[in-house]
Amino acid sequence: MDNQSARRITRADVARVAGTSVAVVSYVINNGPRPVAEATRLRVLAAIEQTGYRPNDIARALASGNTLTYGLVVPDISNPFFASMARALQREAFNHGRVLLLGDAGDDRQHEHDLINHLLRRQVDGLLYTSVDRHPWFDLIRNSGTPCVMIDTIDNHAGISAIRVNERDAACQATRHLLQHGYRELGIFVGPLTMLNAQDRLNGWRDALIEAGITPREEWIFEAPYTRKGGYQASQKMLQGPRPRAIFTSNEQQALGCLSALAEHQLRVPDDLAIICFNGTQQSEFSVPPLSAVEQPIDAMARQAIAMLATGTAQPELHEFAFQLHIRRSCGC
């Protein structure tokens, strides 16, 4: 088969080596629809191994009406939370006989639109989606008829299935934990306020302060990208004036950037500033000090999301998951 190594091996090549017809090769590969004598079947299998033939799954899938692929669109795959979620979703998709195609929007709304269009043109069997901002491309997805599961807070009237945790409640409980330490001067690093999840986390922080009889101080609300650089720059701004005693950061990356800035100023965590963050991952365990963090049950969420796509329910579903508050040294515990 040396002269065939420069081209794709076909079923005709297998049939020639096995001394049978292409139809018989197809029956062996597809387990039917017609029976094949055992001796012939063994010859075909030996020919497949000899030639290195691989069935064309794309052609088989298109013939059956599905592509055995799911699409995933996330705002920024460099964010460890989205990387962890993508890994869990890929594992679950594979368990369901699907391959996951990843689209990284790079925090760009137009690029997100183009990625969704690209995946829909590839006729993915389902779409998993976290939007860059508060305006997901719902009409585009609905008009395609492709099943979709949102991974995040969405408009309850959007008519699209979703999995999520209650981010407002999670932010509230994280802030309550800081209050339980006796801290009264609390700030927040909030994500871009064009994003629904940033608003939820800000409102949760406010809820806890108001519940404790504390008036939120607007000068201690620092808007920043969900990145280490964003957390670092927000910290530098915070340190230019009277600083809070504790800070809730709206994601882990902001918290890590904050740790770096504080170290530059010889400020200690939690002695000089206590920190708790949202969307902690394994990185939170290995920072110095380890970060107290709200963590989402990523594996359970991934299993549910893929199961929702696999069943293809006609009516939109919303599954809300309980979050966990992992307490470590950064908050003063």
UniProtKB/TrEMBL annotation:
Name of the protein in its database record: LacI family DNA-binding transcriptional regulator
SMART domains, per the entry: HTH_LACI
Pfam family, one: Peripla_BP_3
InterPro entries: HTH_LacI, LacI/GalR-like_sensor, Lambda_DNA-bd_dom_sf, Peripla_BP_I
Keyword Kinase on entry: no
PROSITE patterns reported for this sequence: HTH_LACI_2
HTH lacI-type domain location: 9-64
Keyword line: DNA-binding, Transcription, Transcription regulation
